[in-house]
Design a protein that fits this description.
Number of helices: 9
Shape: globular
Helix content: over 70%
Largest sheet: none
Radius of gyration: 18 Å
């Protein structure tokens, strides 16, 4: 499959995912689901084992294939499972997904990376790879803070000589802060939106 075709398929899936997320969010707002923790848990499953597994699997998939915006799924995790368990499930799912795309990038290289990110993003950050020591420092800082293109940088990291062990360590130590900030920002933002829309 060509890069252009695979990119179009990924973009189509992403657009469909974003539209579906907006529709479902508005529908749930009207139902008042975001104000009822038990109803939210029922969406994923009330089972203390199956529910978290399903949710973490969704988080892994959204990192590898960006079907739904990652920030929204982070907020959903905290709303459904509570701040502590939700954070843990978000963290585990995103960390595993990040390791998977790093390994896929290692195996399939530039064609795989370009099928998942735009030329603009690729060209913006590919210069970071000119100096691998510098890339590792910049990558670590980017993972620490929210609102950076984490998934794109994880893909690019796979094109370097960075070891799986070092990459995993950076993800494990660096992800918690950004996940926590994403989750809290979207939860409070969602509450504000709920009040603004009068649902």
């Amino acid at each position: 499959m060509s890069i252009a075709l695979s990119r179009k398929i990924i973009q189509m899936v992403s657009v469909i995912g974003i539209v579906a997320t907006i529709i479902v969010t508005v529908y749930f707002l009207k139902l008042g689901v975001f104000q009822d923790t038990n109803a939210l848990r029922g969406l994923v499953g009330n089972s203390v084992i199956l529910g978290p597994i399903i949710f973490m699997f969704i988080q892994i998939i959204q990192v590898v294939i960006p079907i739904i915006p990652g920030g929204i799924s982070c907020a959903a995790g905290v709303l459904i499972f509570g701040p502590v368990a939700g954070f843990i499930y978000n963290y585990v799912g995103i960390a595993i997904g990040s390791v998977i795309i790093f390994m896929l990038s290692k195996k399939y290289g530039k064609p795989f990376v370009l099928s998942l990110i735009s030329d603009k993003t690729y060209n913006k950050y590919i210069g970071w790879l000119d100096n691998e020591n510098r890339f590792e420092r910049l990558f670590t800082l980017a993972i620490l803070f929210p609102f950076s293109p984490d998934d794109a940088l994880c893909l690019l990291a796979g094109m370097t000589k960075m070891s799986l062990k070092k990459f995993t360590l950076i993800i494990i130590l660096g992800k918690p802060l950004s996940i926590a900030i994403y989750s809290l920002a979207l939860i409070y933002g969602g509450g504000y939106l709920n009040t603004l829309l009068g649902f």
